[in-house]
Amino acid sequence: MRFLLIEDNLQLAAAVQERFKTSGHVVDHAATLQAANQHIAGAEYDLVLLDIMLPDGDGRQFLHNHRTANNQTPVIVLTARSQVSDRVGILDLGADDYLTKPFDFSELEARCRAVLRRRGGETTNAIQFGDISFDALTATLTVDGKTLSLRNKEMRLLEILISAPGQIFSKNKLIDRLFSYDEDVSTNAIEVYIARLRKHLAGARVQIVTARGMGYKLDVTP
After folding, report:
1. Topology agreement, domain 2-119 and domain 126-220
2. Residue 151 near residue 175, CB atoms below 8 Å
């Protein structure tokens, strides 16, 4: 998954990026609202982590503009404000959740998982599709009763595909979702991860289908 972190505390931002990197997520960082708007215009994100007090404005204005533009990307607000009225106002503006600073990283991760589950209509971490079961929390894939452990990029690639079965993802789109701006990655890398996932799915009715000249999709074979 690819997240956008809008936070002017560079030490906190680096810690959040490092924490999510170990789980295979990509986290782009913007220290200002101007930089955040540039990121939003240039990439597609699965989740936004938004600070309120920023050098060039109020994060609540960003949230308001985000929802006014009908952008449905989930937003978790990171705030030092503890008053009930402040938190209610944040939720009413369209935030999906909020977390009061200082926070524990494990709680932040749990809230991100919960928001993404709600977005996908899921109630548990495990996703059942066809004859496979995928759990991003434990990085496991169950095929024909056998549970396999996935590496980070394999896990995140399957997470993208299984979140939208039947939807075709181009190689460039997958690169955009799996890697940060700083990583110089060719489309060959996507082919490698697709090949690895196909090996894991061997024997299952669920397969990664190549749409020639377009990309890949996850589908169930008859």
Report:
1. no
2. no
Residue 189, judged by CB atoms within 10 A of its CB (0-12, 13-18, 19+), counts as middle
Residue 56 token pair: 């060039």
CB 54 within 8 A of CB 32: yes
- The residue type at 122: E
Which residue's entry shows tokens 């082919």?
191
Mention the CATH class of domain 2-119: alpha beta
- Asked if residue 17 lies in contact with residue 10, where contact means CB atoms within 8 angstroms, the answer is no
Spatial separation of the C-alpha atoms in residues 209 and 20, rounded to whole Å? 29
Q: Residue 78: what pLDDT? A: 93
Distance from C-alpha of 37 to C-alpha of 63, rounded to nearest angstrom: 11
Summarised one tens digit per residue, pLDDT across range 104-155 is: 999 999 999 889 888 766 556 788 899 999 998 888 999 988 999 999 899 9
Domain spans of the chain, in order of start: 2-119, 126-220
The CATH T-level fold of domain 126-220 is Arc Repressor Mutant, subunit A (1.10.10)
Tokens (6 digits) for 32: 């200002």
Q: How far is CA 18 from CA 35, 109, 143, 215, in A?
A: 20, 12, 31, 30
